[in-house]
Amino acid sequence: MPKVVVIGAGGAGCGAAIAAAKAGADAVLLERTDMVFGGAVWAGRMDYNGKFVSSEECKALGGGEIFAALESIILHHANIVDEEFGYVYNCPQSEAVVRKAVIASGVKILFEARAVDVIKEGDSIIKKVILADGSEIEGDAFVDATGSAGGLANCIKYGGACVMCPYYRCPVFGDRVGIATKAGAKSYTVYRPDGSPGTLTAAVGIHKESLSPELLAELEEKGAVTIPLPPELIDYGRLKRLGAVRSRAQMENLNLVDNGVAKCVGSGNFPLHDLRKIRGFEKAQLAYPLGGGGGKADKISDIDVNTREDTLRIPGFKNLFGAGTKVGTGGVSAVVCEGYLAGHNATRAAAGKELLELPTTIALGDFTKFIGNIWRETNAIPKGYAFSHGPALERLKKLGFYTGNAAEIHKRVENAGLKGIYDQKIV
Q1: How far apart are CA 419 and CA 413, in angstroms?
Q2: How far is CA 36 from the centre of its chain?
Q3: In this structure, are residues 23 and 343 in contact, taking their beta carbons and an 8 Å threshold?
Q4: Are 343 and 312 in contact (CB under 8 A)?
Q5: What was the pLDDT predicted at 244?
Q6: Which of 327, 423, 404 is nearest to 54 (CA)?
């Protein structure tokens, strides 16, 4: 039985590990913290706009475990401005249900196992990863799902300070290390318009109990509330600074969703003194990031991005794959979908089988090639492209993939001859 080692247990890593185990590999998932699902633990929102298409296609391909886990803890079917089809899951319960799904698939998770280096055979084959404690984990194929964010020094240098985010917790568990970069893959950084490296947080969390009784009641009833911002608080510059793709309309409003806490979407690091100027937020208290209330610092993402082939193999390597924000993709749904493809293909590589390249007759195949072509044809760095807004959503609509009809989406995958491909044993 070939062994596939996945580094990083965020949404992409969890998907990759599940896919590898289902394909017949001995799947080992290394996570430097004590939790799985990474930043997605506090994302809360799923399936809005084109994310519905990607989620349903992945289910049709056989990659439904993580989506089923999140659907089991839905709080609301609700949308904010410029969005449709979405639901909100209970963030405080998300890690537990996703962890259960990963373990149920036969994956072995090693917590507090921070990979810091690699051992190679020649230039193109990874043999082992080295952990911070000096131990070594051998494998036949590897998936780098370490993301592109964090690192205490990076946030201090480029973000102003560590804002004590709930995603990465670097002071406790150590900095993220990009394994593909350590192996010799070229690393790229996304730059903001002012030349600063990295992109910033797209949302903040608020303790629901600190909202006014009237606003809290409305939020819990509707699941999402859109509040127009006073003109002096509108900042369209956020569109260029944020890591996630958002619309101008979302910059003009405070978009609040009930994800078990309360999340202000598209606001970025909203200074607490400005937040309290808005109706219903007079006593607002941030739940996360804990150090972000002054608006002077932020979590930094997109500072360590690698290229990948359309099979998600890292160029120049035979048994190293990448997925998620590590290779320029954004949004919970897209990174989970990529994880399944990376883990499936890592197993194929370990078994000496031909790799799977998703066809452009389905949205996920076209999206994968679309991101790849940005590297190949324009030499530009992917900027967290997701199915929710911006160029990827516009492309989805232009090509006729955009729909809220699940049966239509599943039929498209079936017509491509790929129904349940991730359920099939490779070895």
Answers
A1: 6
A2: 12
A3: yes
A4: no
A5: 59
A6: 404
CA neighbor of 207 nearest in space, from 199, 215, 198, 195: 215
Beta pairing partners, 201: none
Q: Are 76 and 220 in contact (CB under 8 A)?
A: no
> Residue 143 in contact with residue 16, Cβ under 8 Å?
yes
pLDDT value, residue 44: 93
What domains, with CATH codes, occur in the chain? 3-193+301-423 (3.50.50.60), 203-288 (no CATH)
pLDDT, residue 264, reads: 82
Cα–Cα distances in angstroms (integers) from residue 68 to residues 9, 65, 416, 424, 425, in the given order:
18, 5, 23, 19, 21
For residues 240 and 192, the answer to whether their CB atoms sit within 8 Å is: yes
pLDDT of residue 267: 63
Kindly list the averaged pLDDT for each block of 10 residues, start to end, along the chain of length 427: 98 98 98 96 94 98 98 95 93 97 98 98 97 98 95 90 89 96 95 83 88 96 91 78 68 89 76 89 91 80 94 98 94 96 98 98 97 91 84 95 98 98 96
Strand partners, 406: none
Note if the bond before 289 is cis, omega within 30 degrees: yes
| pLDDT attached to residue 93 | 97
How far apart CA 274 and CA 290 sit, in angstroms, is: 16
The model's pTM: 0.95
